[in-house]
Amino acid sequence: MIGICFSISGIIFLSIFMVCFFSKNSIKSDETKLYGNLLIITFIGSLIDIFSFILYKMGVDVNSLLYTLLAKGMLVYFVAWVLIFTSYVYAISKNSIIKYRSIIFKIIFVLSSISVLSFPIDFKKTANAVYPSGLGVNLTYLIVGVFLTVSI
Description:
mainly alpha
């Protein structure tokens, strides 16, 4: 229950940030585009999280197609978020060792998303929650871990 409160609070703050960011005439640079993309994708991910919680509380079977699609959508969201974040870090780093190339990150995103979506996931139930597991989840953890390490 605490997690959903965090997501709802996050949606409220993200809405405020998005209104402030998108209502201003900002400089059209790679940095501002990536930051705007981070705001949008974080908002979408929070909506997926809230919708998944609602479905779980309504008693929808976790092995249903809808729940599986939402879980896989959340995994793709994690991959997209970390790739956009890494792109943002490289775009704002003027003395970066690795040059930021948008096309490389897009190719990595497409290949990673296809891989994550194609691998099966299972759901493990505990008393208060449902956790996805399986090869698709492990691949997501690997991708996120690698790109967070690279962005440091």
